[in-house]
Amino acid sequence: MAKSIPFFKYQGTGNDFVLIDARQKRLIDPTHEALIRQMCDRRFGIGADGLMLLREAPGYDFEMLYFNSDGRPSTMCGNGGRCIVAFAHRLGVVQDQCRFLAVDGPHQARLVRSDWVELQLNDVHEVRTGPDFYCLHTGSPHYVRFVPSLKGIDVLAEGRAVRYTEPFIREGINVNFVAVQPDGTLQVATYERGVEAETLSCGTGVTAAAIAHAVCQGLQGSLTVPIHTKGGALEVRFEAEPSGYRQVWLCGPAQVVFEGVYGLS
User: Fold this and answer.
1) Catalytic residue among 40, 83, 202, 251
2) Which regions of the chain does DSSP assign to beta strands (E)?
3) How much is the pTM?
């Protein structure tokens, strides 16, 4: 293994990531769980909600490999996907549009500005409902509960209670609390599995919240849902049809924070 690893730190509405250009050298692979966990540690490492490798992939502009801060490979990360597109643009790998491969298949993305990325997520064909919640998969599994206000919600405790309860305990689930504002904006707070804590924003989580809102309100047609997270503003656009939800786009900022070199002992 190399003695040091060059990296970039990116964030999208406070959801932060370590990004590594792995096109030429395999500096990290999925077996390096302890190293990834250490790099993401906020006290003893760089500090991040996750780590991503940008690798070459035949037929695509690049491949995205995503790991949660616990060091384990995970499902699709929406804000991470937007950040890696901005990273690929910085590296000169892509211009204003791209097609890349992730764990859940191909994705399209476009850069409206150097710091604003729009990412197409997969169609959603099934939304399961419970007494006071919705469950759906937007690249990652999500549980959505609507609440009158986020004030007074202990996202860590209440999110963990859901995540570690049957039937979710084995595979895990991300837990979203959503408050609908008078102007139609959704305020969303998310407990993320793999991080096992509240994050300032979750891209697939706000997407799940927007679609669950459409289900709850019986909305159809072309929809644009403004989102406010603790880390900033996002927007979710999609086509709501009787057969499902298609042309799903997650839109928002993706910004470089700093770059550095991580030394290995």
Assistant:
1) 202
2) 4-12, 15-21, 50-55, 62-68, 97-102, 105-113, 116-121, 127-129, 134-137, 141-146, 174-180, 186-192, 197-199, 221-229, 232-241, 244-253, 255-263
3) 0.95
